[in-house]
Amino acid sequence: MSELEQGSLQYFHSRASFSLWLPLLRSMADELNAQMPAEDLRSFFFAIGGRIAAADPLPVGTSLADLERSANDFFSRYGWGWVKIRDLHAALEFVHACAPLRQAFGDASMSWAPALFEGIYAAWLKRIGASSQLELHQVGGLEGSVDVMRFRLAHPSYFV
Questions:
Q1: Long-range CB contacts (< 8 A, 24+ apart) of 67-70?
Q2: Helix (H) and strand (E) counts for the chain?
Q3: pLDDT in tens, 27-83
Q4: Is this model's pTM higher than 0.85 or not?
Q5: Residue 138 near residue 151, CB atoms below 8 Å
Q6: Spatial contact of 58 and 128, defined as CB atoms under 8 Å apart
Q7: Domains of the chain, each with CATH number or no CATH
Q8: What pLDDT does 1 receive?
């Protein structure tokens, strides 16, 4: 088992269940899937992520380590997984694991639900002064048994 998988399993075992809200969240996701195309749902969840970030802005730090620590403190409060931020030289990569999106919204939501985190990261980055010439995008699909999501902040030419 990889270090990522071991850390993720430890994380899941340490979290309380959110089963109180599960029937509402699953029913809402089913209705959203029935009413809207995935592209519109991504935009909707991106906007919701932006609102979440605006309501609870991260403290401004001076390093990527500060940003990662603040983001993980935020995600820990809600049981929304954890993030590792990596400098790829041409991009910043946000590797987010253990977000309970599949558990909350079901398998059919995995094409749009990650946009919630994309919206959170984009709003935080804008607030701390990321250049307007850079864009944040999810890259690839969900990975592994803990639904690892990857987001990158880079110049638009990076994504072509």
A1: 67/124, 67/128
A2: 6, 4
A3: 999 999 999 999 999 999 999 999 999 999 888 788 999 999 999 999 999 989 999
A4: yes
A5: yes
A6: yes
A7: 3-158 (3.30.1380.20)
A8: 65
| Inter-CA distances, 137 with 3, 21, 39, 140, Å | 25, 29, 14, 10
Radius of gyration for the chain, computed over Cα atoms and rounded to the nearest angstrom: 15
Q: At what angle do helices 38-55 and 115-127 cross, to 10 degrees?
A: 40
Q: Which amino acid is at 58?
A: L
Q: Supply 58's token pair.
A: 């991260």
For residue 17, what pLDDT is reported? 56
Contact (Cβ atoms closer than 8 angstroms) between residue 47 and residue 119: yes
CB 80 within 8 A of CB 99: yes
What does pLDDT average to over the chain? 91
Handedness of CA 77, 78, 84, 88 (dihedral sign): negative
